[in-house]
Design a protein that fits this description.
The chain is an alpha/beta fold. The protein has 17 helices and 20 strands. Bound molecules: 6-O-alpha-D-glucopyranosyl-D-fructose and calcium ion.
Length: 546
């Protein structure tokens, strides 16, 4: 496999709105990120992915773009962005941008034209169907509620939207639309953007029946075309497509260098793609053997062809320690570190979502007025209005599964608003900030933050972490997750105890015989013996040079 610069780096996802506010308006911005570059550099990340910063009315926090060439006022100015890109370049941090190409805002000038006149050039930039006001076309439900079709009296037609009514889908069948998008991508490349995360990109082909054809071959054709016309022209650009429902075979195709589409994708088999309105009120549960099976499939599935992205969550999912670890004391810290070892020991490019590196946990929202997420608010209205679900139950579900969990302000210190803003934050600060914050963890050599710094470092110091093949051990063990990485004669052993109790595990003899070196552990004073005595949520990585 050809080695690429983006194989060995770790990406940090910044939800700009919630990261750091530099001007006191309660919304995070470029100036805030600039202030935190030392922090990011010390963490050791090689790229930052910024959630959408294009001009937007922010009904979906930037995932509804009204001008692809401008930056949104809340985030700052173009000059500030340029300054940020230049400052990152100096620190060898690549800046990745979130491209929302499946849909625009309903306030984008294209759509404003399109909805006025069927003969407008921009009408065909969107997807329309005839009908009457009373009789909408057949179709499924939109991700954020209601039908995928919305009536426009001026043109006596319905337009199609996969997400909210405020996010009309772009018509990728139209070559002029595609050309416009490519031109825009080139504009951002010229500004020094070195990576793109392609939002909901597997939704761009429609099935003709009011739904999306996320398995269509046509998506690949479009991606190849986009690649050739934009980022494919440079070796310097990293791309990751958000393709929630991708299978291993599809992922191979998307990320195979031969097919020239994308560097890698995000698949959501682990996350589950059903939102709050799916009727599954909790995030998808897993037994440990199931979790192993899932990772095994992806780790080995992309071994020869393609490349994995590795992540425990993002701005759309609950906090990792609350979902896959144990966010109750005394185990939050140990389990957060254990999860870091498990994922960062695997093959692929890891993504850290802001706050994960300090063990931020889910929020408790008491009522819907405290929430911001369009998905949660729409679902709440729909389900409580006809009495199907009580408001109390709905809040319980939102607290378990809702997207605002991950969007509360970054916790920098124990001062007011966690040091995120001097004003009023746009979304409540999680009260746990007095205990869980960056300042406290900077001071503590044993903190989750300092542990993440070490974990990230391993990938740079040991090529086996980047390129070793993955071998699962004890697939049926329901408390311990153990695997090996193998590169020639060299081996790594990763052992993670998922239980809140001590466990013994017999390890392959070779690690003891060859006096394997301990690379990292979340407990002090560990010894290598034929049988490891593991503490609750203990994680260790051993290395033999071979
Ligand atoms: O399309 C899906 C499943 O096939 C969804 O899981 C989809 O991938 C996901 O909802 C897309 O999320 C992204 O686009 C949304 C935005 O609200 C999210 O924040 C963003 O991550 C619309 O732009
Ligand atoms: Ca601000």
């Amino acid at each position: 496999m050809k080695r690429e610069w983006w194989h060995s780096l770790t990406v940090y996802q910044i939800y700009t709105r919630s990261f750091c506010d530099s001007n006191g308006d309660g919304i995070g911005d470029f100036g805030g990120i600039l202030q935190k570059l030392d922090y990011l550099q010390e963490l050791g990340v090689g790229a930052i992915w910024l959630s959408p910063f294009n001009d937007s009315p922010n009904y979906d926090n930037g995932y509804d773009v009204s001008d692809y060439y401008k930056v949104m006022e809340e985030a700052g100015t173009m000059e500030e962005l340029e300054e940020l890109i230049a400052a990152c370049e100096k620190r060898e941090i690549v800046v990745m941008m979130d491209l929302v190409l499946n849909h625009s805002s309903h306030l984008h000038p294209w759509f404003l034209e399109a909805r006025k006149d069927r003969n407008s050039k921009y009408h065909d930039f969107y997807i329309w169907k005839e009908g009457t006001k009373e009789q909408p076309p057949e179709g499924g439900g939109a991700f954020f509620g209601g039908s995928t079709w919305e009536w426009v009296p001026e043109v006596q037609e319905y337009y199609y939207h996969s997400f909210s009514v405020m996010q009309p889908d772009l018509n990728w069948k139209n070559p002029s639309l595609r050309k416009e998008l490519y031109r825009m991508i080139q504009f951002w490349m010229d500004k020094g953007i070195r990576g793109f995360r392609l939002d909901a990109i597997d939704n761009i082909v429609k099935d003709g029946h009011g739904g999306n054809d996320t398995h269509s071959e046509q998506i690949h054709t479009y991606l190849m075309e986009m690649n050739q016309n934009t980022y494919g022209k440079s070796e310097q650009i990293l791309t990751v497509g958000e393709t929630g429902g991708a299978t291993v075979e599809m992922a191979q195709q998307y990320s195979d260098p031969e097919s020239q589409e994308l560097s890698m994708i995000f698949q959501f088999e682990l996350m589950g793609i059903d939102g709050i309105r799916s009727g599954n009120w909790d995030p998808k549960p897993y037994t440990l053997p199931q979790l192993k099976q899932l990772f095994e499939k992806w780790q080995t599935g992309l071994e020869e062809k393609g490349w994995n992205s590795l992540f425990w969550g993002n701005h759309d999912f609950p906090r990792v320690v609350s979902r896959f670890g144990n966010d109750r004391e005394p185990y939050r810290e140990k389990s957060a570190k254990m999860l870091a070892v498990l994922l960062h020991g695997m093959k692929g490019t890891p993504y850290i979502y802001q706050g994960e590196e300090i063990g931020m946990k889910n929020m408790v929202f008491h009522n819907i007025e405290e929430c911001n997420d369009i998905e949660a608010i729409n679902a709440y209205k729909e389900y409580t209005s006809d009495g199907r679900i009580t408001p109390e139950d709905m809040m319980r579900y939102i607290n378990r599964k809702g997207r605002d969990n991950a969007r509360t302000p970054m916790q920098w210190n124990a001062e007011k608003n966690a040091g995120f803003t001097t004003g009023t934050p746009w979304l409540m600060t999680n009260p746990c900030y007095t205990k869980i914050n960056v300042a406290a963890q900077e001071e503590d050599p044993d903190s989750i933050l300092n542990f993440y710094r070490k974990v990230i470092r391993l990938r740079k110091d040991y090529p086996i972490v980047v390129y070793g093949s993955y071998e699962l051990l004890y697939p049926e063990h329901d408390k311990i997750y153990a695997y090996e990485r193998i590169l020639g004669q060299e081996k790594l052993l990763v052992v993670c105890n998922f239980a809140g109790e001590a466990m013994d595990l017999e390890i392959p003899a070779e690690f003891v015989e060859k006096s394997a070196k301990l690379l990292i552990s979340n407990y002090p004073g560990t010894k290598i013996t034929d049988t490891l005595h593991l503490q609750p949520y203990e994680a260790r990585v051993y290395h033999i040079e071979g």
